[in-house]
């Protein structure tokens, strides 16, 4: 029976190294080869078949390095990157990882270990003090890819490109012409538009920027936009006098969504982008920059219902400031209170008649819920007051090792469930 246990997403692994984690010369030790010293009586081949081997090994590594991953190291199968803010912290983390591996009877191949590297290749990315960039060897495979003449070859190309979509602005819109060829009941007809899309993807990945790490001491900036084919967003920081991109997001529109008016497409871009970056934005104030009056129009309703009410409810979970990028169609305050699409739009006209409009939209905008970020001390204090979490946390604070089942067995079912995580 095949085990199903998804590995952590690449973006989440890299984003966990936020702040100044890579801002020192002595960067990390990179362990690329690791094997287990099996004792007699143990299975040497993978029990249950080879297809279970990666999941089983990943589960082993996550268990061995539990509590250290994301803070002291990154682990993916037999690749371990050990990090640190300072040289002393790095050596301390290195010592902790070695002790864990030794305790688990895992051995390292010295020839495959590299220490104090300024940058390393990790699961198709190159990470350094500057940020994250694409691996040139993997991108070379994209650049050298011949023009596909079969759907299978085209899908293989798109899979490789999609892995790096976070580096490409408006990836979905750019890839849409050739992606259509992979849809069901679609004839494989390679047009000039497909050729342009194919070459544009190659060029975009070749010129992909270095993405900076998310920093908790900097405010996030979210830019959103929408077109007839897709929606897109850019999450960034202001670092010094420069605005640095953290990650790009894009999504193709489905058939019903492509029938939306301009207003609803722009609103969809805002809602989907904020939801996509939830782990960055929730509980933090951020700047939302839009080039449309759609959001202010949305927040202008007195008693919204249906889709509009659901969108407002989602957005009210976040604390953001709206900054409108002036355009030729709406450059003053009066224009911001009107819907941005044409007067002939039936959906928007019916919504205005049904739900009514506020006279002062600033009241609605300022009532978005504010969630103050908690400090680690406040979170720990709250957890110690929780009867289900307290038994585990107290034992964890007194020992670096995970509490054993014998210690947790007398506790409540809820505590046992937390322990199983």
TrEMBL record:
Please, which domain of life does this record's source organism belong to? Eukaryota
The chain positions of domain Reverse transcriptase read 1-127
PROSITE patterns, per database record: RT_POL
Q: Which GO terms describe its molecular function?
A: endonuclease activity; RNA-directed DNA polymerase activity
Keywords, sorted A to Z? Endonuclease, Hydrolase, Multifunctional enzyme, Nuclease, Nucleotidyltransferase, RNA-directed DNA polymerase, Transferase
Q: Cross-referenced Pfam families, in alphabetical order?
A: RT_RNaseH_2, RVT_1
- The kind of enzyme this is, by top-level EC class, is transferase
InterPro entries xrefs? DNA/RNA_pol_sf, Retrovirus_Pol_polyprotein, Rev_trsase/Diguanyl_cyclase, RT_dom, RT_RNaseH_2
Q: Name the EC number(s).
A: 2.7.7.49
Q: By its UniProt entry, which CDD domains does this protein fall under?
A: RNase_HI_RT_Ty3, RT_LTR
Task: Name it.
Answer: RNA-directed DNA polymerase
Q: Which organism is this entry from? A: Araneus ventricosus (Orbweaver spider)
Lineage here is: Eukaryota, Metazoa, Ecdysozoa, Arthropoda, Chelicerata
């Amino acid at each position: 029976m095949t085990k199903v246990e998804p590995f952590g997403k690449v973006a989440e692994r890299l984003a966990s190294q936020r702040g100044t984690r890579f801002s020192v010369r002595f960067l990390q030790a990179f362990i690329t080869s690791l094997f287990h010293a099996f004792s007699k009586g143990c299975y040497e081949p993978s029990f249950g078949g080879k297809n279970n081997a990666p999941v089983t090994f990943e589960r082993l590594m996550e268990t061995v390095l539990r509590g250290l991953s994301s803070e002291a190291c990154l682990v993916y199968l037999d690749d371990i990157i050990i990090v640190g803010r300072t040289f002393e912290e790095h050596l301390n983390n290195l010592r902790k990882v070695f002790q864990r591996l030794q305790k688990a009877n895992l051995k390292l191949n010295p020839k495959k270990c590299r220490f104090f590297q300024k940058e390393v290749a990790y699961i198709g990315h190159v990470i350094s003090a500057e940020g994250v960039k694409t691996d040139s060897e993997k991108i070379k495979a994209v650049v050298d890819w011949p023009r596909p003449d079969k759907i299978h070859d085209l899908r293989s190309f798109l899979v490789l490109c999609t892995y790096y979509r976070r580096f490409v602005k408006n990836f979905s819109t750019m890839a849409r012409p050739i992606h259509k060829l992979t849809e069901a009941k679609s004839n494989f007809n390679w047009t000039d538009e497909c050729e342009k899309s194919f070459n544009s993807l190659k060029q975009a990945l070749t010129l992909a920027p270095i993405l900076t790490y998310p920093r908790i001491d900097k405010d996030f900036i979210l830019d959103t936009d929408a077109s007839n084919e897709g929606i897109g967003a850019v999450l960034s920081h202001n670092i010094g006098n420069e605005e640095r991109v953290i990650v790009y997001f894009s999504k193709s529109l489905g058939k019903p969504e492509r029938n939306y008016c301009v207003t609803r497409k722009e609103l969809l871009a805002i809602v989907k982008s904020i939801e996509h970056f939830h782990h960055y934005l929730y509980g933090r104030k951020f700047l939302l920059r839009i080039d449309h009056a759609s959001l202010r129009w949305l927040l202008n309703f007195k008693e919204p219902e249906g889709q509009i009410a659901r969108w407002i409810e989602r957005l009210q979970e976040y604390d953001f400031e709206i900054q409108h990028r002036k355009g030729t169609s709406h450059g003053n305050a009066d224009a911001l209170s009107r819907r941005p699409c044409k007067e002939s739009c039936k959906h928007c006209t019916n919504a205005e008649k049904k739900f009514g409009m506020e006279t002062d939209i600033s009241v609605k905008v300022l009532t978005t819920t504010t969630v103050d970020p908690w400090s680690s001390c406040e979170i720990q204090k709250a957890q110690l007051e929780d009867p289900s979490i307290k038994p585990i946390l107290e034992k964890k604070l007194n020992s670096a090792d995970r509490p054993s089942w014998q210690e947790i067995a007398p506790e409540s079912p809820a505590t046992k469930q937390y322990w199983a995580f």
